[in-house]
Amino acid sequence: MESSSGSAPEFDYLFKLLMIGDSGVGKSSLLLSFTSDTFEDLSPTIGVDFKVKHVTLGGKKLKLAIWDTDLTYHFAAGQERFRTLTSSYYRGAQGIIMVYDVTRRDTFTNLRDIWAKEIDLYSTNQDCIKMLVGNKVDKEGERVVSKKEGIDFAREYGCLFIECSAKTRVNVEQCFEELVLKILETPSLLAEGSSSVKKNIFKQKPPESDASAGGCC
User: Fold this and answer.
1) Strand order in the sheet with 47-57
2) pTM surpassing 0.85?
3) Fewer CB atoms < 10 Å away: N or C end of the chain?
């Protein structure tokens, strides 16, 4: 539900959400499906982008700043300047969505081997809510990662878990809504997102992508 403009405050809480995971797992498509109710088979994101979505959940008007990135190439290139990008990307996030492709096992194992370690290293909030998302369930015949494996991983890392499809929009809204509702149940995160004390995260503009960085893995 879109929030309406008026004399009342635009929103009660501002939350910063991140989307992480390997290139090509569908992070940008999930984000587009949620924010604009459409699906596009997008090219991999180079650098960082974010979209804003106004929703009403739990009786509260919320402004969600959802950051999407593809840092895989940058890490592989070993360029130190992207370490700064990484730390600023994670800073102040109340929610992190860890995405893998159910048809590509490497994207699932890399969550444990790479991305969970990045969260431990860079996340500035111990109470940050994590959501594990198995994307592309519309390709059930090509599935190589079982739902049980996803559930077990989520249990081990203390994550919420859902499987979805950006293409068919199955569980896309539920993914973001369950994450945000959990944030609303966490007092420390609620205090951070409060309109009375919130930091203007939009002053932290995503660094411009470096065109010289080349393609993406």
Assistant:
1) 47-57, 60-70, 13-20, 95-101, 129-135, 160-163
2) no
3) N
